[in-house]
Write a structure and sequence with these properties.
- The chain contains eight helices and six strands.
- With about 260 residues, it is of the alpha/beta class.
- It has a single domain, classed as Rossmann fold (3-Layer(aba) Sandwich).
- The strands form two sheets. The protein has a four-stranded parallel β-sheet, sandwiched between helices. A two-stranded antiparallel ribbon has the order 3-4.
- The chain is globular.
- Bound molecules: zinc ion (ZN) (2 copies).
- One zinc ion binds near residues 26 and 46.
Length: about 260
């Protein structure tokens, strides 16, 4: 079974493209038009805070209601749908194999540590959803550290956050001096990923680049309707990634690439 092909055929995972115009260069949400008459290069949240802890962010696809959003939710919460971890695990594995080199090249060097976002300990009986998903691909789990970050109990499970919450996560001293790739299944307001990145930086991580399956968008969010409409008919293009539009990673090319 080619699970990535299966996911493409569901028409639920439009790829995030390197040349998408009018979106935030960090978190990829549509940005408002500024006084110059052109869209802002970064959204308000990224300009204000997220860029202080996140050195980059690589969403594979846009997640929309009725699309990837539902698949991610079912894989996490619905016992009969845990098989959806297979296509998702395959997507992560395939994306990493095709694009890790270009992501590392773009963000200034190899990652020393790949960290999966921990679940809240009271949610889903304490089992980590992402560990289970990554574990569906044989031998892949060993590439990811699930003990580098702890989500603290006092925080409310599933709460929506638009800002960095210090203390929401605690990072292990093993992250000190490391370049970290931080994986979560989705990025909605960004507060969760930014709070984890904050904890990693506090513990001495040199850089933190986020990775997610989905960059959640909603047509009724501010400045989003037109862009969301433009995604209709866009498919999952596994050969493309947000830092390297449609070209295969070429080691010689990467030598001359500068972070943008
Ligand atoms: Zn942004
Ligand atoms: Zn790439």
């Amino acid at each position: 079974m080619n699970w990535v092909q299966w996911l493409r055929e569901q028409h639920v995972a439009p790829s995030v493209m390197a040349d998408d115009a009018g979106t935030c260069s960090l978190c990829r949400t549509p940005t408002p038009v500024g006084p110059q008459g052109t869209p802002y290069e970064r959204c308000y949240n990224c300009r204000r805070t997220f860029s202080s802890v996140l050195d980059g962010f690589v969403p594979m696809c846009y997640s929309l209601h009725g699309g990837l959003e539902g698949i991610l939710w079912r894989a996490k919460n619905e016992a009969p749908d845990v098989w959806l971890r297979r296509p998702l695990g395959s997507l992560l594995w395939t994306f990493m194999r095709r694009h890790l080199t270009c992501i590392e090249g773009f963000y200034g060097g190899p990652f020393d540590l790949q960290v999966a976002m921990p679940s809240h300990s009271s949610a889903r009986g304490g089992q980590s959803h992402l560990d289970a998903l990554i574990g569906h691909v044989r031998d892949f789990a060993s590439e990811w550290r699930s003990d580098a970050l702890v989500k603290n109990d006092a925080s409310k499970a599933g709460a929506r956050r638009e800002k960095i919450v210090p203390g929401l996560f605690t990072a292990s001293p093993i992250v000190s001096g490391r370049r970290v790739l931080l994986f979560d299944d989705t990025f909605t307001t960004g507060g969760s990923m930014a709070s984890a990145a904050y904890a990693l930086k506090q513990a001495g991580a040199v850089s933190v680049v986020g990775l997610s399956f989905g960059r959640q968008l909603k047509a009724d969010w501010r400045d989003s309707a037109e862009f969301v409409a433009s995604l209709a008919g866009r498919e999952l293009e596994i050969d493309k990634c947000v830092v390297h539009g449609g070209r295969q990673a070429d080691p010689f090319d990467l030598l001359f690439r500068q972070p943008g």
